[in-house]
Amino acid sequence: MRLKDFDYHLSKRFIAQHPVNPRDQSRLLVLDKKMGKIAHRHFFDIVDYLKAGDVLVLNNTKVMRARLIGKKVETGGKIEVFLLKKDENVPLLNKEGIKGRFVSETKPPLNLPLGKGEIEGVWSNGNTTPLSAQGGSAAGGNPSLSGGRKEVWQCLAGGKGRKEGLKINFARGLKAEILKNNGDGTWNVKFNQSGREFMKIVERIGQVPLPPYIKRERDSVGLRQLADSLQNDKGSYQTVYAARSKLGSVAAPTAGFHFTKTLIHRLKNKSVQFELVTLRVGLGTFAPVKADDIVKHKMHAEWIEAKAGVIRRILKAKQEDRRVIAVGTTS
C-alpha cells in the first residue's frame, strides 16, 4: 500500500478546537455493516448499541505535561523540549555497588517505589560508566548537570540551534543538556533532577501536549481566554478514568474522551463489563508516516501493562463468544 492511498480532504471547520461539555454530547457516527446505512447520533447513545455481557477494555493511562518551554543558555533563545520516554539504557549497579533504578520494557518507567537499598537518579547519560551516587541531594535540591541526581529522556526538540552539548534552563530550577542526536528525529536530553522530584517539576511547569491540529492562536482569542483554555486543557485532555498512578503518556487515548462517569454508571447498570489496562501512548501514535511504502514505516514501541486477572476475564468472554471492545489502546 502507498501513502497516497490514505489521502482525503478534511475541512478545517470539522476539526473542533475546544471540547464539548459535557463530554458525552459529542457526535457519534454509527455504521450498520449489514445494511450499509450510516446514522448520526450522540455519544451518550452508545448505551443503545452495547448489550449485557459486552466487555469494554479501557486504557487508564494519564497524560503527563510533556511540553517544556525553556531558554538556551548561550543565546537566551526559546526552545521547546517534548518528553517522550525515560532512557532505559542504564546500568544496574554503580561503581560503589549501590543499587539504582533499572528500567526495561517490562517495567513502567515512572513513579515506581524504590526497593530496599535503592536510590534514584544516580546514573550517567546512558554510557556504560555510571556516576557516583554520593553527589545527589536526598531532599531534591538543585543539583548541577555535572554530578548528583539526574536522568536522561528521549525527547523531541523544537526551535533553531538544536545541537549536541546545548544547555537549556527551564523554570523551577530545572536544567538540561542535549547529549545526542539519535538520527530519527529524537534527542537524548539529560536533566538535573530525577525520579519523583523531576516529575513534580514537570507537572508544575509543563504544558499539555495537545495534538498539532488543535490551534490556540493569540490572534484569534484574547490572552486571558487563551490562558483559560490552556488551564482547562489540563482536565479535558484526560479521560475521566485516568489514574494518577498511571502517569506517563505523552498523548491521550482519545477514543475514551467521551465517556462521563454518569455514562459509565449507566453502562454498568446494563451489565456491560469494564476492564482496565495501561498503555503509555508514545511517539508511535503521532509520528508522521514519511515512507511512501507504508510497510517500511517504523513503528515505535509502547509500554503496556495488562494484569493476569484482566487477561483471564477477557479470554473467558471471548470463549463465551461475547464482544470485547478496546477503547483508546492505540495501535
TrEMBL record:
Which PANTHER family did the record assign?
S-ADENOSYLMETHIONINE:TRNA RIBOSYLTRANSFERASE-ISOMERASE
Q: Name one GO molecular function term.
A: S-adenosylmethionine:tRNA ribosyltransferase-isomerase activity
This chain belongs to the protein called tRNA preQ1(34) S-adenosylmethionine ribosyltransferase-isomerase QueA
Is Transcription regulation found in the keyword set? Answer: no
> Where is there biased composition of kind Polar residues?
125-135
Fetch the InterPro entries from UniProt: QueA, QueA_dom1, QueA_dom2, QueA_sf
> Any idea which UniProt keywords this protein has?
Cytoplasm, Queuosine biosynthesis, S-adenosyl-L-methionine, Transferase
Q: Name one GO biological process term.
A: tRNA queuosine(34) biosynthetic process
Residue ranges of region Disordered? 125-145
Q: Does the keyword Metal-binding apply?
A: no
Q: Which Pfam families does the entry link to?
A: Queuosine_synth (PF02547)
